[in-house]
Design goal:
70 residues; alpha/beta; globular
């Protein structure tokens, strides 16, 4: 099953709604794993190591760093 990491730009109301509807979905927030305030490459590195898909609304900069990783 897919595992997700919601970054600081992702709407927490969406996270709460998904978990209310489907409590078995594995979503953690950067705040929950000690990544608050870190840069995007660090968030992407952590997500890759943990095999998590990053959820973000930050298409301005996160997309660029994601493409650089691949």
């Amino acid at each position: 099953m897919a595992q997700f990491l919601a970054d600081e730009n992702f709407n927490n109301q969406i996270v709460r709604g998904v978990l209310r509807h489907s409590p078995n979905v594995d979503i953690v927030r950067v705040q929950d794993v000690g990544l608050s305030g870190v840069d995007n490459p660090t968030v992407l590195e952590w997500a890759a190591q943990e095999e998590r898909i990053v959820l973000t609304h930050d298409v301005a900069t996160m997309t660029t760093f994601a493409y650089q990783r691949i």
